[in-house]
Amino acid sequence: MMNLIVTCSRHLEEDTEDELIDILDELGDSDVKITVSSMSGIITVETKLNPIEVVRKMKERVLDEPWSIRYCLRIIPIQRVVETSIKEIEKTISNMSNQIEENESYRILIEKRNSDISSKEIITKIANGIKNKVSLDFPDKVILIEVLGIVTGISILKKSDILSLEKTKRSMSD
What predicted TM-score, i.e. pTM, was given to this entire model? Predict the structure, then answer.
């Protein structure tokens, strides 16, 4: 299982893995399981820590010490992992959709790697099951679907729950 997906530059997976082990150890998980996937630049992490908290603490760390995180590019918390099938993805999101409050807007974001599952079909099925307003530019919640070959990670998050190092560092220089 995984509850974080981390992206890094190609061929820097091992450095990224070491960096993650150090950071998560510092945050209180010395027994983290890290898998460098067969997909270039993708690492999956299983930590006993709350993945959304991990992202929040890493964001604070980047703002305090921008140089302290060098290899992780994006850190994405994952709430559920299912097999990659439209039926499973749809069922899981339908069970999680109560995380979107009645008055909140949402957006569906799909990232696919090593899969030819139809994004359009997934979006249609999910959107049909959610009555909330869609907002592509400023959604209150993002339904994130990360397809990694035969497994798919799913989360319903605020945009701020995902850490993009580049965006965070860029916001500091504005």
Answer: 0.92
